Amino acid sequence: MGDTPLLVYLLILLGALVIQTPVISGPWFFLLRAFFPNWKFFHAVGHVPHLYVRFGQQPAQGSGWSDWTHIYPREQRRLRHLVHNPQTNLALTQQNLVEHLATDLNQLPEGADARTLVSYALVAHWVQILGRTLAPQETHCQFEVRMVLPGLHGPLEQDTMLVSPVLPCL
Predict the structure, then answer these.
(1) Closest among 125, 133, 122 to 100, alpha carbons compared
(2) How do residues 3-62 score in pLDDT, each as one tens digit?
């Protein structure tokens, strides 16, 4: 009797794998995606979405911008991370958000505005908050999503997928 829920669950999973359904999308579905990881880890070898940001003063002041900075740097692994690793977990969640944005941008109809996407709004807000910690003296920020083909000694190829408008830092 105790194995019945497990069997039903496994049958539902098997059915979901066998039955081909269209992609479910919509603004409310995005809220549910937070509960599920992006299962495209090793789906295909190829381009990977990367988030780059830069910071500067108000555009009217004519001051320069910082260089584009990649936001997903690898952290050094430590033994204690086997038990407690909140910073890396947060970084993986943020990278998952960037991957969701790249997927949403690929599915966006021609001519549609990316700023209407929930994933875009979340990435934009995250970048605006990053300004406080990475460049507290700067007032504005901008981000771009690049599709990067990684190589052994750095990227082999980079294609810019999206460049945001200039945003005020929070």
Answers:
(1) 122
(2) 787 788 777 767 766 776 666 566 656 565 555 555 555 555 678 899 999 999 866 555
- Structure token pair of residue 60: 């009217």
**Position 108 in a domain:** yes
Domain span including residue 59: 27-168
Contact criterion met (CB below 8 Å) for 93 and 34: no
Q: 33 — phi, psi (to 5°)?
A: -65, -20
Q: Looking at the domain assignment, is residue 6 inside a domain?
A: no
pTM score of the predicted model: 0.71
- Residue 21: inside a domain, yes or no? no
